[in-house]
Design a protein that fits this description.
about 210 residues, alpha/beta, Rossmann fold, two-stranded antiparallel ribbon, 4 helices, 8 strands, binds pyrazine-2-carboxylic acid, binds zinc ion
């Protein structure tokens, strides 16, 4: 893969709560760190995202009496999966993984901080109206091709990839630098949806 100044590695939510032992652990989630550390040394630009919820966030099951983790609820913007409490602002669980090399990151974009709205996507919140500002940032800096990696394939990576593609960016997902949660077949559906949308799938080895 020949890289140019227009390329950016977008690293999604590699945070303690999504790693083994964390509050919303993604199976094998720590396996993304080694390929990411190689990639972040060679892709010209690096941007990180951080899931960043206030206490009592609407996506937490505990905010909905009688609900259990992984139940769903009808919120004002539609159906929402209810998660265990995770990535609470300022906590250890919300910190980026200690093993992740972040030194070349030019931007860390936080999302999910509105108390009543979740945000899987790094571009647009779950109400599908509130923008994070990332598309404008990328456009202003002339960054047009995105390589996505991180956690979780079937939630934050998926939604970010689809929104990026819809916004006109060239998008690739680095298949060995992502891991999924897989709720009721969501992982297979995610790969199918990304293929359908024209999102490329590439191995980290292709970066040499
Ligand atoms: C995520 C569920 C809830 C993710 C974030 O990073 O994929 N999933 N919050
Ligand atoms: Zn979250």
């Amino acid at each position: 893969m020949r890289l140019t100044e227009h390329d950016v590695l977008l690293v999604i939510d590699v945070q303690n709560d999504f790693l083994p032992g964390g509050a919303l652990a993604v199976p094998d989630g720590d396996a993304v760190i080694a390929p990411l550390n190689r990639l972040s040394a060679c892709v010209p630009h690096v941007i990180l995202t951080q899931d960043w919820h206030p206490p009592g966030h609407a996506s937490f099951h505990g905010s909905h009496p009688g609900k259990a983790p992984f139940d769903t609820a009808d919120l004002h913007y539609g159906k929402q999966v209810l998660w265990p409490e995770h990535c609470v602002q300022g906590t250890h669980g919300a910190e980026l993984a200690a093993g992740l090399r972040t030194g070349r990151a030019e931007l860390v974009i936080r999302k999910g901080y509105h108390p009543g709205i979740d945000s899987y996507s790094a571009f647009m919140e779950a109400d599908r109206r509130t923008r994070t500002g990332l598309a404008g940032y990328l456009a202003e800096r002339g960054l047009t091709r995105l390589f996505l990696a991180g956690l979780a394939t079937d939630f934050c990576v998926l939604w970010t990839a689809l929104d990026a593609r819809a916004a006109g960016f060239d998008v690739f997902v680095i298949e060995d630098a992502v891991r999924g949660i897989d709720l009721d077949g969501s992982l297979a559906r995610a790969w199918a949806a990304m293929e359908q949308a024209g999102i490329g799938r590439i191995a980290s080895a292709a970066f040499g």
